[in-house]
Amino acid sequence: MAAALQTNTRLNPINVVPGRSLTNPSRAPCRVRCAAASPGKKRFNIALLPGDGIGPEVISVAKNVLQQAGSLEGLEFNFQEMPVGGAALDLVGVPLPEESFAAAKQSDAILLGAIGGYKWDNNEKHLRPEMALFYLRRDLKVFANLRPATVLPQLVDASTLKREVAEGVDMMIVRELTGGIYFGEPRGIKTNENGEEVGFNTEFYAAHEIDRIARVAFETARKRRGKLCSVDKANVLDASILWRRRVTALASEYPDVELTHMYVDNAAMQLIRDPKQFDTIVTNNIFGDILSDEASMITGSIGMLPSASLGVSGPGLFEPIHGSAPDIAGQDKANPLATILSAAMLLKYGLGEEKAAKRIEDAVLDTLNKGFRTGDIYSPGNKLVGCKEMGEEVLKSVDSKVTATV
Ligand code: IPM
Ligand code: MG
Hints:
Layout: H1 2-9, E1 42-51, H2 55-72, E2 75-81, H3 86-92, H4 98-106, E3 109-114, H5 130-139, E4 144-150, H6 163-166, E5 170-176, E6 188-191, E7 197-200, H7 207-222, E8 227-232, H8 238-250, E9 258-263, H9 264-273, E10 280-283, H10 285-298, E11 308-310, E12 316-318, H11 337-350, H12 354-369, E13 372-373, E14 383-384, H13 387-399
Parallel strand pairs: 1-2, 1-3, 3-12, 5-10, 8-9, 8-10, 13-14
Antiparallel strand pairs: 4-5, 4-11, 6-7, 11-12
């Protein structure tokens, strides 16, 4: 059954050798750095950005798992931990210090925890922790965000949907990450001619932005079950009309992929009515944000979902889709599996190290098979563990080189 998890993370959607750049193929991740590695070992620089709330807890667990799985495959990691978000605001007064960005940019791959918290909720916009995420996404140009949502047999009962609806769900949401209403101009809050305050944002997509995310989605669908559903609001929004037109035009280049379109309100409904109808979904930044949270609940918990954000060159950004959960931060209650699975995506998509990635995926399945559960995915008859213990169990499974069988 390991397959369910693996289908989601098998591809390199940018369609290049993982870890290499399309524009500059010589940019192998360890071109220079390999020289410093021990004989027979490959060395990678990994930027760790723990961030806020439960971020540091889940990153510390995932780092150990990454290190262990890597070392069994002859990989050495040079970790550099840097502050971002609220942690950076508290330290130096900005959400993304230059040094943190530089470390991320120069790394081979970035593993991020979570960003944000009540403490900074009333900050002025440019001093909000979330700005760190937006700067990272924009300046690393990681426009393609892959969010797999797979219902694992071990966790069907944790789903909020009925077993027969949830069982077998295996979809990939391809979210556009560096455009749309998140970044569109004009935007702001101002006072209009009647003296009333108005807030406004702009949903903006250039044709090339739609084309490049659509290509990633077609490539992704082609390597999965060959079905792509493009989600938009083309009955209302002009940006969506262009979106639908461009995606439709590209379909002729992918005759093996069956393309459908769906309005986002219907997609939100279909996701809980019959989620198995979806294979690959491609959508804009804000719809992808919303639908991926919805999809996570089908899988049992938002604490299970990893993500990969990729561009055409440079390091990828890998992070759980959950937030910083300040209500449980520091209590050893967080589910580290989404971050551990993000580390697996980092190995596979970021570094092209599929074997090490599979070690992590198998170890997660094995740990679930043994009945270990954090609170968010707990059901009676299982063993309730905290974040650290869950991490230790995954480490044990990595060590025992178990291939999960269900
Ligand atoms: C996500 C998050 C972010 C987003 C927040 C934290 C700004 O919800 O990655 O889905 O909206 O993109
Ligand atoms: Mg979100």
